[in-house]
Amino acid sequence: MLELIKSTLFIFLFTLGVLAAAERNSSVPDFSQVPGVVVAHSPKSTSLFFGSPGIAVLPDGSYLAKCDEFGEATKKKPSVTRLYRSTDRGKTWVGHHTVEGLFWASIFVHRNSVYLMGTTKTNGLAVILKSDDGGSNWTSPVDKDHGLLFDDGRYHCAPGPVVIHDGRIWRAMEDAMGQPRKWGAHFQAFMMSAPVNADLLKASSWTSSNRLARNEDWLDGHFGGWLEGNAVVAPKGEIINILRVDYRVSGGKAALIQVSPDGRTARFDPQRNFINFPGGCKKFTIRFDAETGLYWSLTNWIAPINAGGNPAHTRNTIALIASSDLRHWDIRCVLLHHSDTETHGFQYLDWQFDGDDLIALSRTAYEDGLGGAESQHNANLITFHRFADFRKLGPADSVVPPHEIRWKEHL
After folding, report:
1. Which residue, among 298, 356, 334, has the nearest Cα to 407 in the 3D structure?
2. Cα distance between residue 232 and residue 326, in whole Å
3. How far apart are CA 197 and CA 221, in angstroms?
4. Of 295, 336, 337, 369, which has fewest CB within 10 angstroms of its CB?
């Protein structure tokens, strides 16, 4: 009997030890299922989430990535942009710097300096910051001679492309001062530009176009608004602002705003300049590839199997798409996919060409061994991805067999 008691006690104590060890290890994340390389992580229990990823290739060949913090945990704090650096082509990343008072910024390299151009906070003032040492130290936008571009009003943007054309540097923006003042409806699109040899920190260097508000009657009354534009050089050499369109009928529209060569006039023809664009209801980045003569983008295309939900919240698929004219887009390949649309998302991808590859940074909601993401929107991860030989990819190279997502029209 004594031996039985000892044996039972041993099993009991051993079980307690196992449970205690499991409890201790429950705070250890598990990224084994996460696609790509994890750059940053914040468990949903923190109520701190990641957004607005951006990536740049520095003159020395290293990568500099950025993202924002958002969520309940940030409500009473200044906006924060985090920076990460990789010196091994994205295989590993280290935290590099943080910048307070900056949100939604594009990151880009111009004349061997790195710039961050965004707002001071959600719908804050428009600012630009500069670093001459690869992102370790940044200027402070204290006034209109040092990066404060607009000292009043409410401004909005996303990490969109910054392009050089006809001796000017171009970047799309919106203000959030339209009526009615609700999400989508209050965004007014415009383009900013400056001479390439100007001091970009001086507000006087920048020219702004007129601001275009939405018309609630467009798209048969289903036009919720436009936002997060892309500065793009069109095939005939004109500057175009291509914007995400809040169109919940299908989620597949974008808008083309034409901009004058001097950057002062923007105009939009609703009869011909709403285009079909796979995934256009969510943010996207468009870049031109001189090697193929094509425009490329990574978008939240809604696979046929996921149709019928809220297009703005369906972010579980990333498609590689291409166009020769910015008006007709072809889906080439599905690069990222998860069957669940509620707590999984790959979104707001910013990307660059890197030889034969595309390198991209994603705001990612995925399993992390700690309960996963709070929602597809409230991302717990920033992930890096390399899509090798992207120009050669087709439907058969997709991460999910096309028949499983009912993708038939391109086969």
Report:
1. 334
2. 9
3. 44
4. 369
According to DSSP, the β-strands at 155-156 and 126-131 are unpaired
Answering whether pTM is above 0.85, one says yes
Asked whether the beta carbons of 239 and 191 are under 8 A apart, the reply is yes
- Taking alpha carbons only, the member of 299, 283, 273, 265 closest to residue 229 is 283
φ, ψ of residue 53 in degrees (nearest 5) = -70, 145
Q: What is the pLDDT of residues 176-231, one digit of tens each?
A: 999 999 999 999 999 999 999 999 999 999 999 999 999 999 999 999 999 999 99
* Positive or negative torsion for Cα 103, 173, 378, 40: negative
Residue 311: is the preceding peptide bond cis (ω within 30°)? no
- Cα(353)–Cα(184) distance, integer angstroms: 31
For strands 330-337 and 345-354, give the pairing: unpaired
Interatomic CA distance for residues 210 and 386, integer angstroms:
38
Which amino acid does the sequence have at 263? G
- The closest alpha carbon to 126, from 92, 173, 58, 180, belongs to 173
